[in-house]
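2024-03-11 09:14:02 INFO worker-7 job=invfold-0412 stage=load source=structure_tokens
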């Protein structure tokens, strides 16, 4: 509550309403169970229990209706954000909010992304799901539903693989544990009941082979996890690394040098305009004021900067003057072959600008003409 940007979003944003409602329902259920435990069994007649449930339901309805009336009186309208709708409708962002679709973390996940992050869990998850459905308890059904929903959300947005990861670990562990239990039981000669040794000798060979395969897969999983952590998730975003033809490493330190130049060669109160990807880095490393940054909640403000990048020079100058811009930072990676420079992001700049300034709106006293 004390953080200015967060404020009361944790209790007022529409995304949290379902979670809060679930919490309230669980508390009501716990309260009813507590009351029931303190009522003597001789007094727990069906009529009394029905009346208590009816009172609880009416009380909950009255509270919900009061909150609804209060929201109308205060003018509060909880609305779902674009990111929420993009999860339910994968085409929503591309059609309505190009800014959300332009973020690489919001792109749909490819099969390679799942295998890159989960490795053998991709194959152990179906085994764990089969085991849970064999004994459909409340916990097992909850785990299956949780994994299935997490897989869907991770498929829509690649960044949500981090939500799938703990669920995948649990369900993969269930599948692995059950498989190991089956094959170790065969090695002990107790799988399928008591049998003579010659009847289960072939099963022993298969079981021993499968246990060796599982051990090898687990060893590969450890090596893969360490490699992914060191190569993909331990590199600073301002220093890029690549491999040359002979296998040696090439370090690109251009970002840090550019921010260092801004810090030492521009006035302290200078305003720098760049695409939003570099906003936090310009602010933190170069210590200069940015027009937009990675906080992409203000779609109109970012669209104004996108309009400056995507318009003809005569119109872009007027937008820069309106924003009081002193320096413009443009990233070009043509010499090094970097695929994430501003040239490749230009189509998103044009789409973001077009999504807000569709030709009927004006900015800086002009009617925008986007390339």
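2024-03-11 09:14:09 INFO worker-7 stage=emit residues=371
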């Amino acid at each position: 509550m004390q953080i200015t940007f967060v404020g009361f979003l944790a209790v007022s944003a529409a995304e949290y309403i379902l979670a809060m409602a679930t919490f309230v329902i669980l508390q009501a259920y716990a309260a009813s169970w507590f009351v029931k435990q303190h009522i003597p069994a001789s007094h727990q007649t069906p009529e009394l229990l029905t009346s208590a449930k009816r009172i609880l339901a009416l009380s909950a309805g009255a509270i919900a209706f009061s909150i609804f009336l209060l929201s109308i009186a205060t003018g509060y309208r909880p609305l779902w954000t674009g990111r929420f709708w993009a999860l339910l409708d994968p085409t929503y962002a591309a059609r309505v909010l190009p800014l959300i679709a332009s973020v690489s973390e919001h792109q749909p996940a490819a099969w390679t992304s799942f295998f890159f992050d989960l490795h053998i869990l991709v194959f152990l998850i179906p085994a764990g799901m089969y085991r849970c459905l064999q004994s459909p308890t409340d916990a097992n059904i909850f785990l299956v539903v949780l994994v299935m929903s997490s897989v869907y959300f991770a498929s829509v947005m690649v960044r949500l693989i981090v939500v799938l990861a703990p669920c995948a670990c649990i369900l993969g562990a269930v599948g692995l544990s059950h498989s190991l239990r089956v094959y170790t039981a065969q090695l002990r000669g107790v799988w399928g009941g008591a049998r003579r040794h010659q009847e289960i000798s072939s099963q022993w060979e298969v079981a021993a082979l499968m246990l060796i395969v599982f051990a090898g897969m687990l060893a590969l999983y450890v090596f893969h996890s360490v490699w992914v952590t060191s190569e993909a998730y331990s590199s600073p975003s301002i220093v890029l690394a690549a491999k040359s033809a002979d296998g040696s490493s090439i370090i690109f330190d251009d970002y840090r040098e550019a921010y260092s130049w801004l810090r030492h060669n521009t006035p302290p109160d200078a305003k720098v305009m760049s695409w939003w990807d570099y906003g936090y880095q310009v602010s933190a490393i170069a210590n200069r004021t940015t027009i937009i940054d990675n906080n992409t909640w203000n779609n109109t403000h970012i669209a104004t900067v996108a309009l400056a990048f995507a318009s003809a020079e005569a119109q872009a100058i007027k937008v820069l003057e309106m924003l009081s811009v002193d320096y413009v930072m443009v990233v070009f990676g043509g010499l090094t072959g970097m695929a994430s420079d501003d040239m490749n992001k230009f189509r998103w700049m044009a789409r973001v600008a077009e999504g807000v300034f569709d030709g009927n709106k004006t900015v800086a006293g002009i009617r925008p003409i986007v390339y």
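2024-03-11 09:14:09 INFO worker-7 stage=report msg="The chain has a mean pLDDT of 81."
2024-03-11 09:14:10 INFO worker-7 job finished
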